[in-house]
Protein 1
Amino acid sequence: MRNEFDYLADLSKTDLMRVTIALAMETYALADRLRGLEEILAARGIDLSALDAPADPAAFDEARRARRDAFAERVLRPLLP
């Protein structure tokens, strides 16, 4: 029998909805901005096919890690005690 932590035991539905809404807002904002950027680049004749190539997670530098951590903090804040 594994001893698993129950992450949801002490969370209210309101906290879970705050996280869900924050993620939805972030996702929409990113998708909208990316669409706009791709439209601008394509209109200027830039080949975007390289965007579909796999990215190496090990390539993350310190600035990217900091942005990732800031994102996680912003979105998951409602889950913190």
Protein 2
Amino acid sequence: MRMTLRHRFSLRKFCRAFALLALLSPTVAFAWQIDASRSVVTFSYEEDGKAQSGTFDRVGGTITHIKGFEHNSKADLKVETASLDLGDALREGVLATGPWLDSAAHPHAVFSLDRLRPLGGNEYEATGSLRIKDRTLPFSFPLRLEDNGQEARVRGGLTFKRTDFNLRDVVLESFVAIGDTIRIDFDIRAFQGRHTRS
């Protein structure tokens, strides 16, 4: 059956409307570049019963999200393990070795965000995975995401057992008591980059 002229015009209008909706669709997401100079990742642990802490000074990666559709957000936060700063060159050198962070073979620790679950306001539950050396484990933890349209700020933290990532040295630990619990806190700033299709 041949399409009438009226049907052709109706189909053309439909196609134009569909194209407009596609352009306005939330599948157009914003890629945010992490501002390494203003981002910080800190960690804390216990050594011989005393609290110790330090920072990783080189942080990079991307955050992809669109305001109002944060549940579709993705992120890859990369930390250079050799940028460890404990204020003690000896400790830093030890923790960069194979039994610990093995920075030569595994230069980055990576957290990958899979999704955010809104908890109200700027609070969310983040679900993703953390890779240290050759091990990757799933994690869920609360975080705060603020986005003013030009700059995004993400703050949160998670706790894990270092032995789950094979961060241990039997010889050293026969002389020094090192706690198994590691706490990582991050304060990440990012600026808006290019547009991408999800």
Protein 3
Amino acid sequence: MKISLLFAAALLLAALAPAAPAATASASMVAVTAADDERCAATQAGDRARLAASYSDDLHYAHSNGKIDNKSSQVEGVINGPNIYEKFDYKDRTFVPAGPGVVLMKGRVLVHMKNKTTGQKLVNDLNYLAVWREENGTWRFLAWQSCKNLPPAPSTPK
């Protein structure tokens, strides 16, 4: 009887052991998704404190036009730049664990903006790669690189 109970307990532990890393990865993906949702909300709100909390101190933000920002200049650009961020419309947002405490985010997003002076609407259609890093138990936005998608080619009449 003792042997069969020990055997059953060993089987149970063996069955549960592989689930631990998967559960951790799943929990990380949920946390990073929430962190990105908060980053987008903070950007739309133009909230300096929330942006600063979302970004890593080591932020490297490469815009689709080639401009490079660090944490300070990116926050200032969102707050005092020429555009208001109205909406982030993700067409694809995939999270990929890259190692302990590092998650890649890749996909396509339509960034809807409005010029503060003219009121003109602008939509940037971007492919992107971003890096999230866990820093002292909090997921922070470490890096962004994007490129603009070309507009669809005009159709030719047949």
Protein 4
Amino acid sequence: MNRPIPGCFLLATPLLSGSWFQDKVILLAEHSEQSSYGFAMNHSARIPIDEVFSGFKSKERKPFRFFFGGPVQEDMVQVLEVGRSQFPDSPELMPGVWLRQITDEEPVPILDLFTEPTTRIILGYSGWAAGQLESEIDRGCWELVFPDPAEILSHSRDEIFASPAEFKRQFALP
């Protein structure tokens, strides 16, 4: 049986119907014996930017797309970037993919982040305690797939992540 590793994608199975994870495609960012966390790649909404970045002042209340990474710490803002990072000290999560947690005090090139079609502004995350994710996989709640994350994330933000089935179809996964 395949085991979870950072960079794999978790595809929700029908066993998760009725839960927050129903029809979710999760990018697993970290996995260890202590815990695991990742981000839903197919749950988003358009929200006025000043509702997320409190210090941002704009005459225009145009909504921007934000992704809901999971049900944990939904007020946490993270930036997932592909190809290059606009933050010089962002950690490279996996080859070609950077992740940066944004703090309230930090100056952020907010509007620049929304111009890159592959950059995702993520609110919250999905997390599992020690052994929890493996248990869910063993019960058949998640299907694991292992395409190259940088390749997958370099595509458009929306269509490929519509559902686990569409994700598999787009990337010709078995």
